[in-house]
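Lecture notes, part 5. Sequence design as translation. It can be helpful to think of inverse folding as translation between two languages: the language of shapes and the language of residues. The source text, in structure tokens, appears below.
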């Protein structure tokens, strides 16, 4: 695939250009609208293949379907793959009704520490599903809720522009409550040890901070480059905090100093890491313009170790 086409397709997938602009550019490179439309399925397949670790779950789109309400250890729709994971979609009871979520866990039926993985402002995309599987491979019962569930769920055609618009229409307070409900769901899941952590990226990083404020039973929170909560609400946090930030991310980083001061004043446990030479979204390996492999690897290792420290019995 031509490198220029792949580059602006990735820009479109990550919301940096609109669908109309993307189609115009693709038509110019392809030699016409018809040729551009024929290229789109090829680009989609290449994107999905790149965003999923080989052999884990080869086609996230095919895995979509209605899940279940409740928490039996082997719900319908959960399937075992050849890598030792059990994955699939479930529904859990939220503040707005059933919330659709993608679950992943190791195949052995025993109790695991649980982690919520919160997506960016593009809904539950294949990349976040892959991150959820990576978390499960580390030995966690991992759940990635779809915040857009009240609006019908993340678009199945993976239309980023539409997903971004839906996210803007989302009732934020209801979304917070739905993620807090995920904490309660995992605490009582038969394959959970009752200890729940939360991590998220960008919009999901900000939401992770909100979950920490609103769910006093949460044990650990790891926001990636997320907007900080109001200083007056920081004393409500009971979870241990590990926050990851990019060095070149002025809007988000403006809040770090006040957040740290509020955490320190309230006597909270926290760790803050700033990764030099990185931009916002440095962890997203499907975004070549932002991805920083060394920083992403280090942040991931720290995140996993932190969750194991805080969520596994001593």
């Amino acid at each position: 695939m031509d490198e220029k086409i792949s580059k602006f397709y990735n820009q479109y997938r990550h919301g940096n250009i609109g669908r109309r602009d993307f189609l115009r550019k693709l038509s110019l490179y392809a030699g016409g609208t018809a040729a551009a439309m024929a290229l789109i399925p090829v680009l989609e397949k290449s994107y999905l293949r790149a965003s999923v670790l080989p052999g884990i779950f080869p086609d996230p789109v095919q895995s979509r379907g209605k899940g279940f309400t409740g928490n039996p250890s082997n719900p319908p729709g959960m399937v075992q793959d050849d890598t030792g994971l059990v994955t699939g979609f479930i529904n859990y009871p939220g503040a707005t009704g059933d919330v659709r979520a993608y679950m992943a866990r190791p195949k052995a039926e025993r109790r695991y520490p649980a982690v919520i993985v919160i997506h960016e402002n593009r809904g539950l995309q294949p990349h976040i599903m892959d991150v959820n599987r990576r978390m499960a491979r580390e030995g966690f019962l991992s759940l990635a809720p779809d915040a857009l569930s009240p609006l019908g769920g993340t678009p199945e055609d993976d239309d980023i522009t539409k997903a971004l618009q839906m996210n803007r229409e989302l009732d934020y307070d209801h979304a917070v409550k739905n993620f807090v409900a995920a904490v309660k769901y995992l605490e009582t899941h038969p394959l959970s040890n009752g200890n729940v952590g939360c991590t998220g990226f960008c919009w999901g990083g900000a939401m992770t901070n909100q979950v920490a404020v609103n769910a006093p039973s949460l044990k650990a929170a790891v926001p990636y480059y997320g907007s900080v909560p109001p200083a007056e609400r920081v004393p409500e946090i009971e979870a241990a905090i590990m926050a990851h930030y990019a060095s070149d991310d002025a809007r988000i980083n403006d809040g770090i100093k006040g957040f740290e001061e509020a955490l320190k004043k309230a006597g909270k446990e926290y760790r803050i890491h700033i990764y030099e030479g990185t931009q916002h979204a440095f962890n997203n390996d499907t975004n070549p313009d932002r991805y920083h492999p060394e920083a992403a690897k280090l942040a991931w290792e720290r995140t996993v170790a932190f969750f194991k420290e805080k969520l596994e019995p001593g």
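The translated text above is only one of many valid answers, since several sequences can fold into similar shapes. The longest strand covers residues 85-94.
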